[in-house]
Design brief:
Layout lengths: L13 H7 L7 E2 L11 H9 L13 H15 L8 E4 L2 H15 L5 E5 L5 H8 L3 E5 L1 E2 L2 E2 L6 H6 E7 L11 H11 L2 E5 L22 E6 H4 L8 E5 L1 H13 L6 H12 L2 H20 L15 E4 L6 H12 L1 E2 L1 E2 L11 E4 L4 H13 L1
Parallel strand pairs: 1-12, 3-4, 3-7, 7-8, 8-9
Antiparallel strand pairs: 2-10, 5-6, 9-10, 11-14, 13-14
Amino acid sequence: MSFTPPAYPYERLDGLKKLASVFDGGPIDCSIGTPVDPPANFVIEELARGVGARGYPPSAGTLDYRDAAAHWMNRRFTLDLSGDDLAACVGTKEFVGSLAGYLHLKYPERDTVLYPAISYPTYAMGATLAGLRSVPVALVNGQLDLSSIDAADGQRALVLLANSPSNPTGYLDDLEGLAAWGRRHGVLVVSDECYAEFTWASRPRSILEHGRDGVLALHSISKRSNLAGFRAGFYAGDADVVSYLRSVRQHAGLMVSGPVQAAAALAFADDAHVEVQRARYRRRLELLSGALKRLDVDAPFPEGSFYLWCSKEGLDGWALATLLAERSGLVVSPGELYGDAGTNFVRLAVVQPDDRLELAAARLEAS
């Protein structure tokens, strides 16, 4: 049977955008988590120098890039990594989308990807693109319910994917418990931590704080530094897995461009610009969380991330998204896009500039 790709999730939002466009000032699109705030000037200046543009960059990342990423991990999570403990990827979405296929080449007897029942769609799609099974894992209070994993699925699992802070829910997971479960069952646990800088309920955390054997942590410059267009991230953890993936990804020709690596290394080396962005997102989350109460929408402040995971009694996600478009011009993502378990929710990304979100809040106050 041939494969026909499904519609890309966000292409389904055109109707909501049309409803929201009737407002003076137009729609306020909070459906996609694309940063809009300016990156640090020194990063863009380094990119413009074009260091490494003439030759092919190393697939695993330059030493400067890997060292900068390792030093950031050590500062942020009190770890002891070196540049040899990690490797570059072309953004973490690419890594997640290709991981299952590469792991299956090494472990052909395993054919299953376990992933959160409410999660970023690429987790399940990575399994589909590799011709493998994807099995959602139930969530309890926003955390993976490991006791719900069928023993047969655990035995067939190539990988358990986790996301903390979560996109879309904003919950934090028990990373120590996930690492322990993976080691007991011989299943690689991959922790997508790209929102770690925007952790509100505690300090930022990484699964690598609980050892490296049998686990990987994924990180990206996209959210941290408003550089989603750089397509630059890295993976770190289990030495054997990192070594294997470095090799197979090199054969596949996956490389972050040289000038991007040089600029991203400077971004990883600086924390001041991230503190500025943290303050922006906190302010915006508080603004919209409060304003949504005017429509009796439950939008609690998240434990992490820059998303509000919203619900309203009596409405499913599409109906709530329609209501918000009609009453405020806000365009949000119905929770169904993140799995059937998200049907009664919407996700709102506070990634529009302050004046646009203040306009949305004013419309909500007036509705």
